[in-house]
Amino acid sequence: MGKKTTKHERGPAVLPLPPALPKKRTTRKPAAEKPAETETVTTTTPEAVSAMAENAVGTETAKKKILFVGAEVMPFAATGGLGDVLGSLPAALAKTGRVDVRVVLPLYGSIAQSWRSQMREEYITSVRLAWREQYCGIYSLVRDGVTYYFIDNEYYFRRPALYGYFDDGERYAFFCMAVMEMMNRLNYYPDILHAHDWQAALSVVYLNCLYRNRPWYGTMRTVFTIHNIEYQGQYDFAILGDVFALGENEHALMEYNGCINLMKAAIECADRVTTVSPRYAWEIRTPEYAHGLDAALNRNAGKLSGILNGIDYDFYNPATDPCIAERYSVQNMAGKTADKLALQRETGLPERADVPMLAVVSRLAAHKGLDLVSGCIYELVGGHDLQLVILGKGESGFEDFFRELQARFPDKVRALITYDRDLSKRIYAAADLFLMPSRSEPCGLSQMIASRYGAIPVVRETGGLKDTVHAYEAWNGAGNGFSFTNYNAGDMCYVIGEAVDLYHQKPEAYKALRKRGMAEDFSWARSAKKYREIYDSICK
Fold it and tell me: Which residue range is the domain that position 367 belongs to?
């Protein structure tokens, strides 16, 4: 039979394009067309690789080589916590010494020209994925001691958004196959391949199923990190060979509940599996939180562990933050009141230094606990002397609800239906309390940022929230925030009331609680040390 080309030969609709990189090559080759000789770098032979590796002894081999594979990385392209992690953890690891850390991500069309102008072209070639042969470029950039590689193919990655396309499975299969081929092209073979979430899961699978017997791939160890188990990369088995370039002998590995499950396959293949908090590592082994993967995770429980994410202490630092009105620190808190007054002026709220400000910075979605907020908000706002500031976008029902709430309580509520990172920092700096009542939260970063800025977190005890926020104990003053266990509006409202009462009735106890939160160590240095321990356990 001839090659099936119709489905995959279709290109996307015409889209507005940002400025291109210099020396740009054609973006997509037809499946049957071989790349031009002038555009392809000759593949390094195993003999040549061996010779070069011998010459490198005493240099590269002195350091443990780690390659991070992920779909988003700050500051280049990010939509959430995954991008924050891959933007901060590699640099933190590099600072530990004796480690060569590199990161690879797609070269998205949304990556700013200011970054593109700093990139170096490493090679131009093609990558075969099943029956199709596609253009592939590799560009590099060094930042903060970390080398970043960018996989270029405009058909797959030059689109307005990072995700949400009908062919996401094919896009990230190409990305993972390109990562495998990149190693040979660059003569760079990491000791550890560290893949993140379902978009990078196939890099672990391809290594185990297609590349293990090739020179220099056989000793490579793998770590797979689950950032959010809700998104697993599930597809129909009809595309196992046609899109993912895997044969029927991998059927059992890829199958879960009757379909292809990329995350499950990576869990089975990886030497170690991590997730982003100790509590979440326990939760995802239960049916309530696992989204169907509890059996696979319990079967591999011996290689599963949870490591808390961190935050960038240079970027989130009220003592140096250029985005806030007045800078302050745990040693000198005078500026925090000024920041509250400045935000009140900015948003049109009454300027009152004596009123507790409760903040929410979140995607507006039900699993973030906002249904609890809507369930008791009138009692909360109407019954307490406080101000409420909400920042975020999301589900239209919640957006409309908070707009209506502002209209009903114009002197108490501001609903800022947008996302602005600089504005979020001004809110953290202004807030006295920070609400995060999530139904589930793998790790959470907002509660750490809030603590850093002296906004006492009020959270539900789930995932990383339980690991990072410890309930205030009035009898001995212990704790660094407020928390509730049961997922219901009444418990949440009661705990918020306790926090507001502490602010009004026991100001010295409130200030001591705030200082304890600001003194917590949520830096990436702590997390990097634990990842080093994982790496050392599988690669001496």
Answer: 334-522
Confirm whether 56 is domain-assigned: no
**Mean pLDDT over residues 431-435, rounded?**
98
Q: Model confidence over 259-278: pLDDT tens digits?
A: 999 999 999 999 999 999 99
Looking up tokens 């993912």, which residue turns up? 244
In 251-383 the beta strands, taken as DSSP E runs, fall at 255-256, 259-261, 272-275, 304-306, 357-361
Q: Which residues contact 199 (CB under 8 A, 6 or more apart)?
A: 70, 71, 163, 168, 172, 175, 233
Tokens of 263: 């995350």
Closest CA to 460 of 477, 444, 474, 478: 444
Q: Are residues 301 and 347 in the same domain?
A: no
CATH number at residue 367: 3.40.50.2000
**Residue found by looking up tokens 């001995």 in the block:** 476
Confidence (pLDDT) at 17: 40
Helix (H) or strand (E) holding 434: strand 433-436
pLDDT tens digits along 64-111: 999 999 999 999 998 888 998 999 999 999 998 889 999 999 999 999
> Is residue 315 assigned to a domain?
no
Q: Which of 302, 332, 373 shows the shortest CA–CA distance to 518?
A: 332
Cα 113 to its chain centre, rounded Å, is 23
pTM of the model: 0.84
pLDDT digits (tens, 9 = 90+) for 380-414: 888 889 999 999 999 999 999 999 999 999 999 99
Secondary structure element (H or E) that encloses residue 52, with its range:
helix 46-56
Q: Answer yes or no: do 96 and 238 share one domain.
A: yes
User: 301 with 403, same domain?
Assistant: no
> ∠ CA(40), CA(46), CA(47), 5° rounding?
115
Domains of the chain: total: 2
Task: For residue 322, tell me if it sits in a domain.
Answer: no
What is the full DSSP assignment across 93-131? HHHTSSEEEEEEEE--TTS-HHHHTT-EEEEEEEEEETT
Q: Let me know if residue 327 belongs to a domain.
A: no
Residue 275 shares a structural domain with residue 402: no
Residue 218: CB partners within 8 Å, gap ≥ 6? Answer: 212
Helix H segments across 348-435? Answer: 370-383, 396-408, 421-430
Q: 361 and 482 share a domain? A: yes
